[in-house]
Write a structure and sequence with these properties.
Shape: elongated
Helix content: 25-40%
Number of helices: 3
Largest sheet: 4 strands, parallel
Order of helices and strands: HEHEEHE
Distance between the termini: 42 Å
Number of strands: 4
Strand order of the largest sheet: 2-1-3-4
Amino acid sequence: MFFFLQIIIPGLRLRTFDGLHLLFSSVIPLDTRPETTDIWNLAEAFGASCHSELTSEVTHLVAAKVTFLPLRHCLVLTSHRMIARHGEN
């Protein structure tokens, strides 16, 4: 049974965010390489593709500050308007 779970769970985990292209805004410190952060690696472990710049590929913006400029650009450039707030203050 344990061996079975070791095979099934990673596959299910990768499908969780499959097809999502995430941009983190004001979530990762500016002096940090984004791909070294826990949130970036966790999102990728669950199947997301993470981006460090807003492009037409980005489907979801994870923002710590709702008034931040990339949010406004995201709403103008894409038809996706789902916002996930990281770390409510």
